[in-house]
Design goal:
- This protein is mainly α and 45 residues long.
- The chain has 2 helices and no strands.
- It has helices at residues 5-9, 17-38.
- The chain starts with a helix and ends in a 7-residue tail after the last helix.
């Protein structure tokens, strides 16, 4: 069975762009927290 363009647009599922951006932002935040905990920055006085 072949679907036309309209029927293809009606199919829901997959991962949205915003979900990928959110996952990447969470990953970067988590890596930064672990890095800050493992190697805390020194005070520059």
């Amino acid at each position: 069975m072949k679907l036309n363009d309209y029927e293809l647009m009606q199919i829901n599922g997959g991962v949205s762009v915003w979900a990928l951006i959110g996952a990447l932002a969470g990953l970067v935040f988590g890596v930064g927290m672990v890095d800050g905990y493992a190697r805390p920055p020194k005070c520059r006085r």
